[in-house]
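User: Fold this, then the next.

Assistant: Folding the first:
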Amino acid sequence: MAQTEKAPPGDIEAQLEELEAEADLLREQNELLQEETAALEEERDSLQRQLEEAKEAAAVEIRRQPKEGWEQYFPDPEETTLKGESIENVRELLGEPPFKIRSIAENEAHNHEIWIFQPFEEDTSGLYLFFKGNKLWRSMIDEFNGLFGSQLLEDEEFWME
């Protein structure tokens, strides 16, 4: 039987110190890589959100006329069954209008928007939707010859209350 030679204690201590130093270095590198991985994952998540927002924005189709079936929500030129509905719900039902005036405030309750669709092919009528605080406040069907000279910005009851 051959006897194995034992290394002197000094050599073992040196090897142990070397291994501990290498382990410390690997721990530091691992920590740096974990931090870098977390930063890259955060950047990836941010880019994914931006991509989803861009896809949603690109999917919005601006429509001259409201979506088919819009008439059911407007039984009379001065009346709508959508009064009090959110902008999101109205957009879902009618689509994105070709004309929009909006004033966005710090406090959402003070937001004001006016949407105008041209619901008829051979007619200059406009379907006007007035939103206050992101809810449909009033609607009307009336003549529309463009924004210039329309006096929409002079409606004190809408803008000031």
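Now the next one, as you asked:
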Amino acid sequence: MSHRAQLTIAGVRFAMTCDCDIANVAPSPAYRDFTHPPAVQPDVEVAVTLVPQPVVGLAEYSRQFDADDMWSLFRNGDTRYVTHTGWGIEAPLWSAELQLDASAMRIYCGAVLVSGAGEERTVSSPLRYPLDQILLTYVLARREGLLLHSAGIEYGGQLWLLAGRSGAGKSTAAQLLQGRSDVALLSDDRIVVRRVGETFKGFGTPWPGDARVAVDRQAPLAGILLLAQSSDNRIAPVRAAEAVERLLPMISVPWYEPELFPEVLSFCGTLVESVPTYELQFRPDDDAARMLVDFMHASLITGE
């Protein structure tokens, strides 16, 4: 008997199947909205087969990349293995087998994720941070999308991205606006940007920052604000070429995949040519919140 579960992020549905029960699909409260059927039908579906046994044969493959003693990328011809290598456990906790187009994948689950035996056997879903985030970057790379370190603020049905590296003030800026009836927060740390048809859209994700904002919601992009903490509150336009240079360190780019990186870079260039980019200098006070709301309102009225 085949058991099914799903995780849907930014219009990408990871459709999981397994020959045993699948548990812990929502490993934290931030994931709950993303594990139920979404309000908007996903336009990308990735078939994910969960295998309740550890991967074998990795020693024969070429090790391409290591990330913070947490996970590694192995390669066997055109096949990639994104593999958990941390925690000091003997066998990998999980290992995802996929091709570059990431249209289907197989995830081998180590003993820590499997419980019971026979008809009572259960596998705990490995699609959680960091694996879900890594796999999503593969899916997006060839589908005009990217994952950005950014808060997402919806105003008047349009989404503004407050982009910045760790410590830039994404959660701080989001907290300044929390509780307002005229704005909706989608995330205070990670936003997916995709081109859907002719429209650039931003999507909330299940990976919140300090403000714990993680909402399964989407909206068309109005603009990008590059965060810079300052003693003054000020918003100024940024040229497209400079915007690309400043955005790149904030994008979860598969630098370790030379076939994919140029596609992400090209999409980033298209994004900033199509969506206005500004620098938001701010100090964390109510004046900054008022300035930002006034700016978003003026843009909505003028269409600029």
